[in-house]
Amino acid sequence: QPVLTQPPSSSASPGESVRLTCTLPSDINVGGYAIYWYQQKPGSPPRYLLYYHSDSDKGRAPGVPSRFSAFTDNSAHAGILLISGLQSEDEADYYCMFWSSTDSGVFGGGTTLTVL
Amino acid sequence: EVQLVESGGGLVQPGGSLRLSCVASGFNLDDFAMHWVRQLPGKGLEWVSVITRTGSKIAYADSVKGRFTISRDNSKNSLYLQMSSLRPEDTAFYYCAKDIYSANWDRFDSWGQGTLVTVSS
């Protein structure tokens, strides 16, 4: 079962930008899979934010601000969630996810984002 | 408004069985694939299973394969998860989640509030 690795925590100040990483196993082609991002606040179910596969295949859920974006960093072998103009309401857990070659869903361990 | 309401959680002994239900409203259940996703209290998410709109395609996580069975009754707007041979490590909140597609799966665009399953003696 492939594993997606996310740092357990990250922090930044309001107005700053923050990059949340989701590292894929080294034997998986980063460009071959769509990476999905979910946000979860305490006491609530997760919420789908956006996905990135390529510059021509990406999308943001309705109502998600444009300051949330995603891309892949091939040198880091990772999917990246970029949050610009950080706001206090962005404080939450963020999970990446992809579908493996065997059609199994795989989540990362999640990153807790703290807005200082 | 899309609503998903799970039920059927509770306390069960190791080796026992439980059946979870998820009732959908605000959309036509038979237009979409549906998933179960679980979350250990205070921990991360784990995808459990998916079923397409007609039930023609089903998939399970390796951790539950052979023990859990997903099903649906579109006439009742309901999704189910039959869990057997339960283990303490199955203790989690179980969410049902709606996919954006019908005959395949992609992303979960709506989630229920979850139901808690506790496996303990």
Task: Itemize the secondary structure elements and their pairings.
The complex is a heterodimer of chains A (116) and B (121).
Chain A: E1 9-12, E2 18-23, E3 35-40, E4 47-54, E5 57-60, E6 68-73, E7 78-83, E8 92-99, E9 105-107, E10 111-115
Chain B: E1 3-7, E2 10-12, E3 18-25, E4 34-39, E5 45-51, E6 58-60, E7 68-73, E8 78-83, E9 92-99, E10 108-111, E11 115-119
Parallel strand pairs in B: 2-11
Antiparallel strand pairs in B: 1-3, 3-8, 4-5, 4-9, 5-6, 7-8, 9-10, 9-11
Descriptive report:
The complex is a heterodimer of chains A (116) and B (121). Chain A is globular. Chain A has strands at residues 9-12, 18-23, 35-40, 47-54, 57-60, 68-73, 78-83, 92-99, 105-107, 111-115. With 116 residues, chain A is mostly beta strands. Chain A is built from no helices and 10 strands. In chain A, strand 8 (92-99) and strand 9 form a beta hairpin. Chain B is built from no helices and 11 strands. Chain B has strands spanning 3-7, 10-12, 18-25, 34-39, 45-51, 58-60, 68-73, 78-83, 92-99, 108-111, 115-119. In chain B, strands 2, 4, 5, 6, 9, 10 and 11 form a 7-stranded mixed β-sheet that branches. In chain B, strand 9 and strand 10 (108-111) form a beta hairpin. Chain B starts with a strand and ends with a strand.
